[in-house]
Design a protein that fits this description.
2 copies of one chain form a homodimer. By secondary structure, chain A is an alpha+beta fold. Helices cover about 40% and strands about 20% of the residues of chain A. Chain A has 14 helices and 21 strands. In chain A, the strands form 5 sheets. A 6-stranded mixed β-sheet of chain A has the order 8-2-1-12-20-19. Chain A has a 6-stranded mixed β-sheet with strand order 6-5-15-16-17-14. At the A-B interface, strand 13 of A face strand 13 of B.
């Protein structure tokens, strides 16, 4: 058991609220600050991608007894539905029978998490802008504007769960020996919407993640409980097939008619939503260290913001909390060593999911429409079903297992090299499930 | 000819002052701001590595008529003197006969550059802290402290020449789509000193860069005009053979007696200097973009801070000015396209010198004590002397030519692959200058 501390958490997002619940249940006093209003009191929409919850995130919720509460507002998703042409939809199951991920509306989930944290006894301070933290004392500075008056609040420990543009990290970044990088993709995204049918039912299969892969751009859709889908259009900011090219209503309608003709019926408010909703940016942010002595620590997007293409932003952030909780069990009151072990053990794994997420844009936007890629997935699934002890596909390692991300990435790369060899086999299209192929895979696996 | 503008330059270092001279000579009004006092009025010492000036830097000085002024305070350096043991000093010439680089004291040179800029009509504002710039208007904000009162000054264009921790870049970094990275080496450095002999002469050969390579740490020395040498000790911050291990006078003296016994006579103030001078950090910083419309631009360390192991920090910064000046000749008053072309054409080259500089720590600290490496250098020099049209060693391309850094890096990598093959030849030690080796190099060159 830990000695109770007075802890500030900056950020009332998904990671901030779940961390607050963990720390409160350990007996600490927990104050959560957010510069925005209480999400339960505002209309939250227009700039979010639906979230995907999978095993790592579920584990962190389950360990603190919140699994059922959260899965109750999620929709199970068992496959990709790949809209390759007007009438052609290919399906690709994510895992084995019964293995699903959950589609969650960010707004809905965040409201639920604030409720749950409040019920657990966490205190929230909304519309309180934290601009600075003293790394030696964990004291935070709060004020209306960056250049205006600030007042201070003292804490024993301050956590920065304040996202990709974290102010807590901003302070840490001014130290010597602080490594930092931010890299923007030339891909932006915009939220669109598929409303429910008049009877409240979903217009498309709600248990699939729908993708319209079109090379350097794509549309995707994930279901909400109210019968609607949240859609996200990903495309370059400028250049060919880009947001820059879609300046007028006519250009937009023509573009969708050409590339996504089958969405005309299901996205009735295309023009209104497109020009009303902002175009958002995608950034990969890495830094190190994440902590300062026993006083200040970063968690979630504040120390490892990733692009959304593996659906692991929230899962990775929640897994940070699992790792931190393991360290609390291991070190008790020794917060300095606890935080040190947390950042060192976690860093290689968040670097790995950053890499996997970055690579997955090409997989989703272009490879899902590629025959060779689909054949590879088919062979992997067939071999894995026959030899589950010998082969777990990369997606399953990342999403349906708790294997550290860095190990999943390394094994995935090895498996990919094997599949490259297999796909070179002459006439592989017709003998992909033959004994010859099976034996060759086994041989290549043993040659490791 | 350009229309005269009112231009602010933030930073009165080497790049800021040279840029000011260029812009003043073009007819602009130029105001240079610096948060520090006038370097001519203070005692500048204790935390600098001596500078090395070579062809790229000389070209930028020459084009504005300052070559002689600057070379007058420099000392020609023609070779590395590699102190491998107490009595063994290996020599390695940098280039062909007459090819030299120049050792310059940073303080001395910076004072001279401020003098020269003032003579050219540039106005200096010292002890004026610029905290912010408005990217849309180029207006700068100045004040005593970051959180105190600020006043503003209007300009047509503002240049950030304010070094690795640039405030101008700090503002640009808050934009979307701004890529940025800072990576610290776990190598620190400390200034030491070899005083002149009583007769004012140098204690070591002044026309050599002296290195004591010791694996993961090294000492180096570069001559000053007053008979002294500025020495720099590079070593890890922590771990084996590190600054952390040298906490007491006894530890320090014993360490130097063990690893640098031949320096005992020439560094009399070791203990005093070591504990008086700070341990400094080494960072590689990259970012993009460097400019904002026709209003704000970064230059020198402010947009590409590199580690000092190739001796190209100042040369790369001065070459930025050459490139900018070429763009001024090309675009005239079209500052938006001028700055755009400047950043796009320059960026791959500053990335390349960052990479070359990073690699060169291992070359200096460890490879210079390696027989195989010295043999490779000997073969390259021999072949290059015989076939100057076919082979220019990488160091010469970087230092004694104006070839873009990115091309030099690419060709250097190709040459290195060839030398790897050559060094595999059996008994190469004894036939390194044979016809067989000569023909093999020619053959490998043609196989490109």
């Amino acid at each position: 058991m830990q000695t109770p501390k007075k802890i500030a958490i900056v950020g009332s997002g998904l990671v901030g609220t779940l961390l607050a619940i963990y720390l409160k249940k350990l007996g600490h006093t927990v104050h959560v600050y957010d510069r925005s209003p209480d999400i339960r009191k505002i209309n939250f929409s227009g700039r979010s991608i639906n979230l995907v919850l999978s095993d790592r995130g579920i584990k962190a919720l389950k360990d603190v007894g919140l699994e059922d509460e959260v899965l109750g507002i999620g929709i199970p998703v068992e496959k990709r539905a790949i809209h390759v042409g007007v009438d052609t939809v290919n399906e690709q199951f994510y895992g084995k029978d019964g293995e699903v991920i959950y589609s969650l509306s960010r707004g809905l989930l965040n409201k639920k998490m604030v409720d749950l944290a409040e019920q657990a006894g966490v205190d929230f301070y909304f519309e309180q802008k934290v601009w600075d933290v003293d790394l030696n004392t964990a004291t935070i500075s709060i004020g209306e504007t960056e250049r205006g008056e600030w007042f201070t609040k003292d804490y024993d420990i301050t956590f920065g769960a304040d996202g990709a543009f974290s102010r807590i990290r901003h302070r840490m970044q001014r130290q010597s020996m602080f490594n930092y990088s931010q890299e923007f993709l030339n891909i932006g995204y915009k939220e669109l919407n598929i409303p429910a049918n008049p009877d409240g039912k979903h217009k498309l299969n709600k248990n699939a993640l729908h993708i319209w892969p079109r090379g350097n751009f794509m549309l995707m859709a994930l279901a909400n409980p109210n019968g609607s889908f949240t859609c996200t259009l990903f495309m370059p900011h400028d250049g060919e097939n880009s947001f820059e090219e879609l300046k007028t209503k006519e250009q937009l309608v023509e573009f969708f008619a050409k590339h996504f003709p089958d969405t005309k019926e299901v996205i009735p408010n295309l023009v209104e939503d497109f020009f009303k909703n902002p175009t958002s940016y995608l950034v990969t942010m890495k830094c190190f260290p994440w902590t300062f002595s026993d006083k200040v620590a970063l968690i979630g997007d504040a120390c490892h913001a990733i692009v959304p293409f593996y659906g692991h932003g929230m899962n990775a952030g929640f897994e940070d909390i699992t790792v931190l909780n393991n360290m609390i069990e291991k070190y008790g009151d020794d917060w300095a060593n606890l935080l040190n072990d947390y950042e060192n053990s976690r860093k290689p794994n968040t670097d790995a999911i950053a890499e996997l997420s970055y690579r997955n844009f090409m997989e989703m936007s272009s490879k899902t429409a590629d025959e060779k890629f689909l054949l590879q997935k088919k062979i992997e699934k067939w071999f894995s079903d026959k030899h589950p002890d010998k082969w777990m596909p990369l997606y399953s390692r990342v999403t349906f297992s708790l294997q550290p991300y860095s190990e999943a990435l390394a094994i995935g790369d090895f498996q990919n090299k094997i599949m490259e060899e297999i796909l070179k086999i002459e006439n592989i299209e017709n003998k992909w499930n033959s004994e010859e192929v099976e034996n060759m895979i086994i041989q290549l696996l043993n040659s490791k």
